């Protein structure tokens, strides 16, 4: 089981990142902290296999922590997850050896790509003493395939607890949407709880019918919004 530490000062974003981690098979969150001081305290109790690190943090930035982490000879892999999109920040992060860099808002599909990249790196650096060019290329020169691609001939089974009848109602509600929508938009239209609705939307997101992203509002916490991916109707034909 891969142990993950989340370093994010926005509780809502930290929760979403943790949900993404828990949806990734073989991963679990051992700590979610909001300051660099809390990171060092957590590291005295357990060393994670992976750190998800924000740049903008109170007191000390993620980049400053990353520099100090490397100076202290910690080789923990890091994925940067941040709203920082300037080239200088990205360049510095890469110089300190981050595995991937995710710019907020991002989709679960892109998050999963980052996790898959980490797993390739982990396998290469922990289970092999020697390698060859082909294996190394799989890590360093990643195949450029759309992250939303799916096997068009296989119907993904419904996760435990979801029903085909309710999914049909969710799909009917989605068809009536004229623009990007939230969990609340669908839940209120079919009289279903937001928690249950979110599970159905996550399933449709996982199979590639929907794409999701965090929408940052001028006030309050960000919300997850969804939109239908064009030309993916074949993924839901057996659900309707």
Automatic annotation (TrEMBL):
Pfam families recorded: Response_reg (PF00072)
Superkingdom as given in the UniProt entry: Bacteria
Response regulatory domain segment(s): 3-119
One Gene Ontology term of the molecular function aspect: DNA-binding transcription factor activity
Record flagged with keyword Transcription: yes
Transferase in keyword set: no
Location relative to the cell: Cytoplasm
Cellular-component GO terms for this entry: cytoplasm
UniProt-recorded name of the protein: Response regulator
InterPro entries: 2C-system_Tx_regulators (IPR051271), CheY-like_superfamily (IPR011006), Sig_transdc_resp-reg_cit/mal (IPR024187), Sig_transdc_resp-reg_receiver (IPR001789)
Modified residues (4-aspartylphosphate): 54
Main location: cytoplasm
């Amino acid at each position: 089981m891969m142990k993950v530490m989340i370093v994010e000062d926005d509780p809502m974003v930290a929760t979403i990142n943790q949900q993404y981690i828990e949806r990734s098979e073989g991963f679990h969150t051992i700590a979610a902290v909001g300051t660099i001081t809390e990171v060092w305290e957590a590291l005295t109790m357990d060393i994670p296999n992976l750190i998800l690190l924000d740049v903008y943090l109170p007191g000390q930035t993620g980049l400053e922590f990353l520099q100090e982490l490397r100076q202290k000879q910690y080789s923990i892999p890091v994925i940067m997850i941040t709203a920082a999109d300037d080239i200088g920040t990205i360049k510095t992060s890469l110089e300190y050896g981050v595995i991937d860099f995710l710019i907020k808002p991002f989709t679960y599909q892109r998050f999963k790509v980052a996790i898959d990249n980490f797993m390739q790196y982990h396998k290469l650096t922990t289970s092999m003493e020697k390698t060859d060019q082909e294996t190394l290329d799989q890590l360093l020169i990643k195949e450029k395939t759309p992250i939303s691609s799916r096997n068009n001939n296989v119907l993904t089974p419904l996760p435990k607890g979801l029903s085909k009848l309710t999914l049909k109602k969710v799909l009917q509600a989605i068809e009536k949407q004229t623009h990007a929508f939230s969990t609340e938009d669908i839940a209120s239209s079919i009289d279903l709880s937001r928690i249950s609705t979110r599970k159905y939307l996550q399933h449709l997101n996982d199979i590639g019918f929907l794409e999701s992203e965090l929408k940052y509002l001028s006030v309050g916490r960000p919300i997850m919004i969804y939109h239908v991916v064009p030309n993916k109707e074949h993924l839901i034909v057996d659900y309707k």
